[in-house]
Specification:
The structure is a homodimer. Helix content of chain A is 80%, strand content 0%. Chain A is mainly α. The first copy, chain A, has 2 domains: 3-57, Homeodomain-like (Arc Repressor Mutant, subunit A, Orthogonal Bundle); 62-202, Orthogonal Bundle (Tetracycline Repressor, domain 2). The interface between A and B is medium-sized, with 31 and 30 residues. Chain B binds a DNA duplex through helix 2 and helix 4. Chains A, B: GO terms for molecular function: DNA binding. Chains A, B: Keywords: DNA-binding, Repressor. Chains A, B: InterPro entries: DNA-bd_HTH_TetR-type_CS, Homeodomain-like_sf, HTH-type_Tx_Regulator, HTH_TetR, Tet_transcr_reg_TetR-rel_C_sf.
Amino acid sequence: MMEKEVMDKRHLRSIKTRQKLLEAAKEVFLEEGFQKATISQMIKKAEVGYGTAYVHFEGKEDILIVLMEDVMGKFYEIAEISFYPKSKEEAENIIHKQAYSFLKMAETERRMLQIFEQAIGISSAVSEKWKSIREKFIQRISKDISYAQENGLARKELNHELVARGWFFTNEMYLWDIVRNERQESVEEIAKTITAVYTRGLYL
Amino acid sequence: MMEKEVMDKRHLRSIKTRQKLLEAAKEVFLEEGFQKATISQMIKKAEVGYGTAYVHFEGKEDILIVLMEDVMGKFYEIAEISFYPKSKEEAENIIHKQAYSFLKMAETERRMLQIFEQAIGISSAVSEKWKSIREKFIQRISKDISYAQENGLARKELNHELVARGWFFTNEMYLWDIVRNERQESVEEIAKTITAVYTRGLYL
DNA sequence: CAAGGAATATGACATTATGTCAATAATATA
DNA sequence: TATATTATTGACATAATGTCATATTCCTTG
């Protein structure tokens, strides 16, 4: 039972138009960057009328958000890695793995993330989207720190939310650094180094 | 000997025009934000002709960069605090003080930094300017870590530049968080917490 | 199966910005 | 005073956005 079988011919056409627009938009974004990309370029490439773009999307920002949705999904997956360490060493392993996966995304999805970074500065809709990913991570890390504190693994005197935020911030900035191709060092080395400082700073 | 005495009447007029534009621009930026601020609003407020703005500046971005220059200066001062600790405790004190001063800037200069943050995303000129501040700090921190490592205060096995970057990133992100008014906690508490994790993670 | 109705698509248009430039005004200099 | 230099000006060309009345395409119902 493919969903498409059920559809109207015109609904189908609509979906196809939308799809053509998304594909064209992706190309245009990658070629021009977020700022310089224009609706006109997209509709030309998609071979549809100008107004059509506004039928399907609210504007450039909206299109980018849709294009980013699967990348978003991958971030959420990483945020959900389970965390029940029995020792400092085990904690370090899990944390390292998580940081590594997170930073690896920068390499895997570099091109789209570059566009996304540009858009974060410009579009508040995109920026909100990213903020929600960030808060998801911070909440999660915060919970993990609490768990470690309750189980006598981590320093209890530290405000877990502040620590979580600080730790995530380091990760996030390295993510963008890598996205911009500004780091020589391997993702592995970066992950190892920042995890080492963090775990030794927090754990007993 | 005031510089002004030396000037032509017309050079003086030019300086005044420029000044009027800068003051008007600041108001407009603060009222409208970077995106929505327009040259037209500024020249109207400054009571000069449209083209005049382009005689004195290359555009919105350029005006903002000039407006930010004294804030920049304050950042550079903080980056230059001297660092020759004799013990882990002394190091922690200096580092805490530096982090505190840095984050305090977020409160003191909040309004202009808000505009600056918006502009970083949009204008590559502004973004470059910020990047140079960031690199200045990272270089400096990097040197400080090396010093501590050579003097047997810090863990030698860690790549000092990677650690420096990570530490600065935490600070920077908290800076923007505070600028956005998104933190309840006091600057003092934030500085204390992140410094505690960092110094324990890095120092012996 | 034909006619009317609903969903889609279209591009001309009004709007709003930007940056340029030839003309004009103000001031300096010879 | 006449001429050169510098500063200012606003009209214009350009470019992008988002809207909307109209056209097209397909579905439904009598």
